Amino acid sequence: MDGGNQTIALRWFGVAGRRSRAQERDALVLARVADGDASALTELYERYAGPLFAFLYRLAGDRGTAEEILQDTLLAVWRSAGTYRSRSTVSTWLFGVARRQAHNRLRGLPPPLPAEPPDGAEVVDGLPGPEELAVGGDRVQAALARLPLAQREVVVLAFLNDLSHREIADVLGIPVGTVKSRLHHARTTLRGCLDERMA
């Protein structure tokens, strides 16, 4: 192996090792939650509240509703931590719990209204990329609101939370092929929505 490839391999193993240690640490923290340790729940909250809130906000389209669902998620984690069986990472399991809480709250409700963009948010032509989804301009939120919830959640998990197709499948409890299909249909819908707004 030449020096360049060896450096790349060492970096990859370093990143993989850090991820593995983080996953082990998360599993230990979740086990403490299962044992009734409230400080462990606080530790999980501090680590994952941001990504979970971003996911829930994109599903709900409303800050207050997303905050309520996040609180429901924490309560569900507190009650069900003992059911975690290491078949997925703790972060994937947490997104699955948050998704179930969102579905419980949002079932039967109309799609969210567009949110106001944060100050300084730029809107660019074409399909939104991960950065634009994260910033959340009104054009993006309006387009996301037009997606069925099943498509909206795969878009948010893929582009905002940067989950792989396999991780999304684990969160949603569906086959990888279904994830790919929903992403394909979501992109088509988003493209149509954005084309309408630019016409």
Overall form: globular
Strands, total number = 0
Assigned CATH superfamily of the largest domain: RNA polymerase sigma factor, region 2, helix turn helix motif
> Which CATH top level class of the largest domain fits?
Mainly Alpha
> Which regions are unreliable across 5 or more consecutive residues at pLDDT < 50?
114-135
Architecture of the largest domain in CATH?
Orthogonal Bundle
Give the strand content. under 5%
Q: What is the number of domains?
A: 2
- Percent helix among the residues? over 70%
Beginning-to-end CA distance, first to last residue: 54 Å
Keywords: DNA-binding, Sigma factor, Transcription, Transcription regulation
GO molecular function: DNA binding; sigma factor activity
Pfam families: Sigma70_r2, Sigma70_r4_2
GO biological process, one term: response to stress
What does the model show?
- This is RNA polymerase sigma factor.
- By secondary structure, the protein is mainly alpha-helical.
- It folds into two domains: 109 residues, RNA polymerase sigma factor, region 2, helix turn helix motif (Rna Polymerase Sigma Factor, Chain: A, Orthogonal Bundle), CATH 1.10.1740; 87 residues, Arc Repressor Mutant, subunit A (Orthogonal Bundle).
- It is built from nine helices and no strands.
- Helix 2 packs antiparallel against helix 3, helix 2 packs across helix 7 and helix 6 crosses helix 9.
- The chain starts with a helix and ends with a helix.
